[in-house]
Automatic annotation (TrEMBL):
Name of the molecule in the record: Uncharacterized protein
Species of provenance: marine metagenome
Membrane-spanning parts: none
InterPro entries in the record: HAD-like_sf, HAD-SF_hydro_IA, HAD_sf
Cellular component terms per the entry's GO annotation: cytoplasm
Lineage: unclassified sequences, metagenomes, ecological metagenomes
One MF term in the entry's GO annotations: phosphatase activity
Length: 157
């Protein structure tokens, strides 16, 4: 699929930002910043704040996307959750009514609210980066709460 694209590192039309883990450096962010200031668009796979690695909590790309947006005074195009288009594509591809779909996730804002904004049910799982205080402070009400994914059996069978 990559051969369908023309890669232009000198004057790119867009910078696509995904997960780089420890590959994010000040130098890399400065290079991206300069391309954006020169007119490139910023496309972000998502804007998650953090994720969990074997070493514990780690910054995800969201803080880097936000920093770049602030620096160039322009919004990124977010193509993943919680962008409604992400969910609408799934609804269309699956040819299922949104009310017959449930998004299961551990992020109250990205997974659950993103789904609910598209009339998809949101099931919050208390694993991964689930944070009871965060859930309470958002006011977002999941359609169901699961202790683990194994609890799906109880929900549907």
């Amino acid at each position: 699929m990559l051969n369908e694209f023309i890669i232009n590192n000198n004057d790119p039309e867009a910078i696509i930002l995904g997960d780089l883990g420890s590959g994010f450096t000040y130098d890399l962010l400065t290079k991206i910043f300069k391309k954006l200031k020169a007119g490139s668009d910023l496309i972000a796979m998502h804007k998650n704040r953090f994720w969990i690695t074997k070493g514990g909590l780690s910054l995800d790309i969201g803080p880097f996307v936000s920093a770049l947006e602030y620096a160039v005074d322009r919004r990124a195009i977010v193509v993943g959750k919680p962008n409604p288009e992400y969910f609408k594509m799934a609804i269309k591809d699956w040819d299922i009514l949104p009310e017959n779909i449930m998004m299961i996730g551990d992020d109250i804002e990205i997974d659950i609210k993103g789904a609910q904004n598209c009339n998809i049910k949101g099931g919050l799982v208390k694993t991964g980066k689930y944070d009871k205080l965060k859930v309470k402070s958002t006011g977002i009400k999941p359609d169901c709460i699961l202790s683990t994914l194994a609890d799906l059996k109880k929900l549907f069978f």
